[in-house]
Amino acid sequence: MTDLFANTQFMSFMWESITIESVLKFAVVYFFVIWIAVIVWVIKDISNRTDNLLLQILSILIVVIFTPLGVFLYLLIRPSRTIFEKYYLEVEENLNILSHIIEQKNEQQKVLEKSECPDCGTEIEPDFVICPNCKKDLRNQCSKCKKEIRENWKVCPYCSTKQEDKKHKSKKHSYKNKKTD
């Protein structure tokens, strides 16, 4: 019972001590606390949204000078996206471009993989050295080191082995074909 009586006395003392002057002081302090909090928020927000120093200073001054209307003005002029959001959008766009390029390369590779033997028309894969049907050489290889060389080269640039004449080689090759048949 005494606690209730003490609380009642405390409450009546509080109500008696509240004056218009103390309410105004509290309202002014509250206003300045909110004002400083808004300024700090604007400083952090605008620094996350732009690197433009002039826009940052202008935004802060608008909030400081035109309080409380300045907050609404700031919300109208601030950039819509943060620097990080712009960065991630740019990365996403670049990834989309890269995936499109990769898809095009894959389609080109599929087209290249579907090739035919120039002699018999059998479907061959790009890494075939000889046609499995007619045994035609699809690539020119060095007779010694077996590295791929161009058709008109007379000497292998890798091992310096002199290469046989293509006409002579094809006659020799066709002779082997007759023997095995």
Return the string of H and E elements. HHHHHEEH
| Radius of gyration, whole Å | 42 Å
Distance between the termini: 121 Å
Mean pLDDT: 82
Spatial order of the strands in the main sheet? 1-2
Contiguous low-pLDDT stretches (5 residues minimum) are 168-181
Query: What best-fitting shape do the alpha-carbon axes yield?
Result: rod-shaped
**Roughly how much helix do the residues carry, as a percent range?**
55-70%
The biggest beta sheet is recorded as:
2 strands, antiparallel
Work out the number of β strands.
2
Q: How big a fraction of the residues is strand?
A: under 5%
Explain this structure:
- It is built from 6 helices and 2 strands.
- It has 181 residues and is mainly alpha-helical.
- A hairpin with a 6-residue loop joins strand 1 and strand 2 (123-124).
- It has a domain at 2-80.
- Helix 2 runs antiparallel to helix 3 and helix 3 runs antiparallel to helix 4.
- It starts with a helix and ends with a helix.
- It has helices at residues 2-17, 20-49, 53-65, 69-77, 83-113, 166-180, and strands at residues 115-116, 123-124.
- Residues 168-181 have low confidence and may be disordered.
